[in-house]
Design goal:
This protein is α+β, with helices and mostly antiparallel strands. It folds into 2 domains: 194 residues, no CATH class; 191 residues, no CATH class. The protein has a 6-stranded mixed barrel with strand order 2-3-8-5-7-6. Strand 2 and strand 3 form a beta hairpin. Keywords: Cell membrane, Lipoprotein, Membrane, Transmembrane, Transmembrane helix. It is found in: Cell membrane. This is ABC-type transport system, involved in lipoprotein release, permease component.
Amino acid sequence: MKIVKFAIINLLRNKKTNFTTALLIIFGTSALLFALGFIKMSFFGLGETMVRQGIGHFQIMNPNEKLSKGDYPLEFGISSSDLSKIKTLLNEYEDDIETIMPRLNFSGIISNADKSTIFLGKGVDTQNESVFSSVFVKMEDGKNLGLDFDNPKKNELILGSKLAQILDLKVGDTATLMINTVDGAINAMDADVSGIFSTGKEEIDKRLIMVPIDMAKELMRTDKISKLVVGLYKTENSINISQDIKQKLQDTPYSSYFWEDLAPFYRGVVNLYNTFFIFLGGIILIVVISSVLGSVSVSVAQRTSEFGMLKANGFSTKDIMLLVLSEIFVLSLVSVIISLIITHISMSIINVSDIQMAPPPGSNQGYPLLFDHIWLESVIIAIVIVLISLFASIRPSFIASRLKISDALRS
C-alpha cells in the first residue's frame, strides 16, 4: 500500500512527462478500439447485407448445378418431388427457419423490339423473398414483383437500371424474353416492366432481370428449380444448421452450402481487414512500448537522487523496482479507462449521426459509418496495453533499483 501511495504522489509530481505518456497510451488504445469497432461492424453489416439481399444463410443445390455443369439447362436442378422431400427435412428446423426461397436461374436475350441484348435472369418467389427482406432489391422506379393485386398472375419483370438504359425501357413498357428451354427449344414471352432496380453494382445492373418463379418455369418449360435458399431468424445459428442439413443430404444428389462459402467477396474483405488490423495494431503497440520505455528511462535518469534518498530511508531494491512499475501500472490503467470512456461515447455519437461513407469500388451506393462497441475486445485491448506498458518499464525499473546509494546521492 505504501508503494502505491508513493506511486500516485510521484505521478502527480511529474505531470509533464506523465501527461505525454498518458496521451500516447490514450491515443493508441482509442485507435485500436476504433479500428476494431469499424472492422467488426463492417463484417456484420456486409454479411447481413449479402445474406438478406440474395445469398440467404445457406443454399441447397446439386454440386453440378453450383459449378454450372450440364449439357442442357437445369439438368442438375431440383425436381418438384425432391423439393417436397427437402422441405419435409427442413420442417425439423421450423423454429429456426424464417423462410424458404426457391430460385430458378436462366439466361437469354431481352428485346424492346428495336434493341436486343443478353440478360441473366432469376425466377423468384416474391412473397417469400419479401418476408426475408422487405427490400431484396432497391427499386429506383416502379414497384417490385407481385404488387399488382388487380392482376397477380400477369407476366412481369423488374430489371437493372443500366439494362433499362441500354434498352431504353421504362416502367409500363413491354419487353420480350427469348431463351433456350430445358428440351433445347427456343421459347419467347412478353412481359410488362413493373420496376427498375439497382443492386449498387454496375456490372450486375447491366444484365440482371427478375421475374416471378412461376413465369420462369413456364418460360423454361420445367417444374425444376436451380436451388433452394434458406433464411434463418438468427445468423449465428446458420453454420450449425447448414452442417446438420449437409450431413442429412449425404445420400441424395444435393448438398448444403454455408453462406460464407458462397461469398468469396466477403472472405476477401475479412482477410484484407484482418491483415490491416494486425499491421495497425503492431505499429500502435510498438509506439506504446517506445513511448513508455523512453518516458520511464528519462524519469529514472532525472530521479536518480530521489531513488538514492529512498534507499537511504530504508527502501529495498525490490521496493524501488515495484515503485517504478506501480507508477506505470497506475498511469496506464487510468489512461486506458479514460480512452475506453472517450472512445465508446464517441462511437455512440457517430452511430447516431448518419455519416455516409463513399461507395466502395464496384458500387454506386454509399453506406453509413458505424462502429461496434466490442465490449469484450475493449477489455482485452485495455489489459494488453497495460501489460505492454509494464513490460516496457521492466528494464528502466531494474536500472533504478540497482543504483548504489552513494552514486545516486552524488548525482
